[in-house]
Specification:
It is found in: Cytoplasm. This protein has 398 residues and is of the alpha/beta class. It has 14 helices and 17 strands. The strands form four sheets. Strands 5-6-4-1-7-8 form a six-stranded parallel beta sheet, sandwiched between helices. Strands 11-10-9-15-16-17 form a six-stranded parallel beta sheet, with helices on both faces. Strands 13-12-14 form a three-stranded antiparallel beta sheet. Helix 8 crosses helix 9, helix 10 packs parallel to helix 11 and helix 11 packs across helix 12.
């Protein structure tokens, strides 16, 4: 693996600086979705059980280096105490005398939350002096924020070079899942890539065609590829200026032995709204006034058959306008098929990205996927084959 876990560290009596992602939605001072906090519980529980004293480092919002009351992490203390079932103390800075005093006073069984790291403008500049100030607060550094691992910041990258470092349970699970999906996957490997624009996923597509056996393209992106193949798409969402690029991707995929799967039939409507009158047509028969809003049943049958013979699935983006019924049909059905194969032990399925998580939750399939990443930017950059600074720093740490 190249990186250590909590199991590799002697935590007893040690202050453990834990970089976490608790960037949760708050309305009128109340946390409306505590999913990210709940996912930290295994890390905090294991550190406490091993005799360690967790000290939490986190950013919240984008204060731009200014102290802003509405972006203070102090408002999360009650929610953290309920989740961790222990006393959570708060320090009104993440470096300096107040933070050092609070860290020294922390007792076994307690958790210390430090103030928003981004109240310091140098945090996002990966400032080594700021990282050194943070490092003085702990004996061990533990990164449990994969969602921030694509940023080289003081609390994610520079600090890992100053203390014995490891991955937390959430980071560990994420990295292990990603290694299974693209690092050393069981083959055949299939990727589903959907969404609106080819232009935002060029690096992703370029990386995947070198690594997967089947690449299923859906959503508005698929329309751009249909244009590249000379097919009419009417008023569909499509980046017509990207047709030459799409054609190049098709040629490169063929040369790499990667089978690109485009819709063979489509669901077409004249209005972009729920339950708009619609019809199923061959992919090359979209009328001038029509909009392609979903993949059709023949396309879905092809996708399901590919899933059946695959061993690994990576999913990023819906197959159609999943937010509108009934144009969520292909996404839902494909997701449920992947879930059933995963449940039966026939498929390793890893998914990530905002729309992807929403679509899989809506379909009811999310619970059966092998792993679902909530780390939007970091997950996408990993799929693009990029080095994530926060992960690389763990691999180079002592």
């Amino acid at each position: 693996m190249g990186w250590k876990t909590l199991d590799d560290m002697d935590l007893n009596g040690k202050r453990v600086l834990v970089r976490v992602d608790i960037n949760v939605p708050i309305v009128d001072g109340v946390v409306t979705d505590s999913t990210r906090i709940r996912r930290l519980m295994p890390t905090i529980r294991d550190i406490l059980a091993a005799g360690g004293r967790p000290i939490l480092l986190a950013h919240f919002g984008r204060p731009g280096g200014e102290r802003r009351k509405n972006l203070s992490l102090s408002q999360l203390v009650p929610t953290l105490e309920r989740a961790f079932e222990t006393k959570v103390l708060f320090a009104d800075d993440c470096v300096g005398p107040a933070a050092e005093e609070a860290a020294e006073a922390l007792q076994p069984g307690q958790v210390l939350l430090l103030e928003n790291t981004r109240f310091h403008a140098n945090e996002t500049k990966n400032d080594p002096d700021l990282a050194a100030g943070m490092a003085r607060l702990g004996d061990i550094y533990c990164n449990d924020a994969f969602s921030a691992a694509h940023r080289a910041h003081s609390s994610t990258e520079a600090i890992a070079r100053l203390l014995p470092s490891c991955a937390g349970r959430l980071m560990q699970a994420e990295l292990e899942a990603l290694e299974k999906a693209l690092g050393k996957p069981e083959r055949p490997v299939t990727a589903v890539v959907g969404g609106a624009k080819v232009s935002t996923k060029l690096e992703l597509l370029g990386n995947l065609i070198e690594k997967v056996d089947y690449l299923v393209i859906g959503g508005g992106m698929a329309n751009t590829f249909l244009v590249a193949k000379g097919m009419p798409v009417g008023k569909s969402l499509a980046e017509r200026i990207m047709k030459d690029t799409a054609a190049e991707i098709l040629a490169k995929a063929e040369a790499a032995g990667c089978t690109i799967v485009l819709p063979s039939d489509v669901v077409v409507a004249e209005k972009f709204e729920s339950h708009a009158p619609h019809q199923i047509l061959p992919a090359d028969r979209c009328p001038d006034e029509g909009m392609i809003l979903d993949a059709g049943p023949d396309s879905l049958a092809t996708i399901k058959a590919i899933f059946e013979k695959s061993r690994t699935l990576i999913w990023n983006g819906p197959l159609g306008a999943f937010e509108l019924e009934p144009f969520d049909a292909a996404t839902n059905a494909a997701a449920l098929k992947a879930a059933a194969l995963t449940r039966a032990g026939k498929l390793i399925s890893v998914a990530g990205g905002g729309d992807t998580v929403a679509a899989l939750n809506a379909s009811g399939a999310a619970g059966d996927f092998t792993y679902i990443s909530t780390a939007g930017g970091a997950f996408l950059e990993w799929m693009e084959g990029k080095t994530l600074p926060g992960v690389a720093a763990l691999m180079q740490a002592d």
